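Write out this protein's structure.
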Amino acid sequence: MPSISIVIPNYNMAGTIGICLEAAFASQCDDFEVIVVDDNSSDNSVDIIKKFPCRIICLNENAGASKARNIGAQNSLGDIIFFTDADCLLQKMTLSAASRALSKEGDVVLGGTYTVEPFDKDFFSRFQSVFINYSETKNTVAPDYIATHAMAMHSQTFRESGGFPEDFLPMLEDVEFSHRMKRSGKRLVMDPDIKVQHVFNFSFYRSVKNAFKKSRYWIMYSLANKDLAADSGCASSELKFNVLSFFAVLLLLASWAAFQTQLSLSLIPFILILNIISSRRLILAFYKAGGAKFAILSLLYWMTIYPVPVSAGGMYGIISSLLKK
């Protein structure tokens, strides 16, 4: 019987599932199995998966990542279930770190995060990887949620949980699961030593599209959950203050253009400084990851462009929530 079952949902991820499985089987852990649940892919994912000594479960229709994870967990044999994604690369010591942490912490939902350096080295992928790593690890004692790109727990804990919600939003099922587990009395624990390297392959377009999409569904979930102001991982207080600062500057510029009031212009540097102070630890994370040039470019992107798709997605989420009522 394996001690750890790695569960990976896959849907049309032929571009990454191969290197994902290569990384999983390179783990320095002797006692694990890999279960891939293919969610009725239309590409050649299954042919790639069959090249590896893993267990593959093929679904007859596309059912979503939540159901794929639930089915994989139901068919697992390990004492520990480790969830990850088809575009994530386990580091060699990830499974060992998860096993040690669960032995120490006991009956908890254990989480890890992305490596600071992503698989692809373009600016937008690096920006996103640093942002997520920082956001998910700044509160290791009591994180608001654990993401399924690196989530581990004892198999009995998962089976008693009811699993991931299958009739839900297209994403954030891990946030809903985490919040439900907390309400049931389970502790969430974030261990920064548990890492996976993500394949983003981000361009500028994909970066802003991702920000728009995630913001939309975060707002929809947060309105329903009544925790819109929460400092919740990537929906961080820094991100929310950054968006508010961006619009405050726009309003002041509009006020100056309309009324030529010097006060409007004089307040702008004050707001920008407050925003930098609010984001200082994230800026430091950018600096540590790529030096001064990367930190400056990241700060400019963070303060001048990134708030646009985030706020647009948020507005779309508010409208979507109102239309549902």
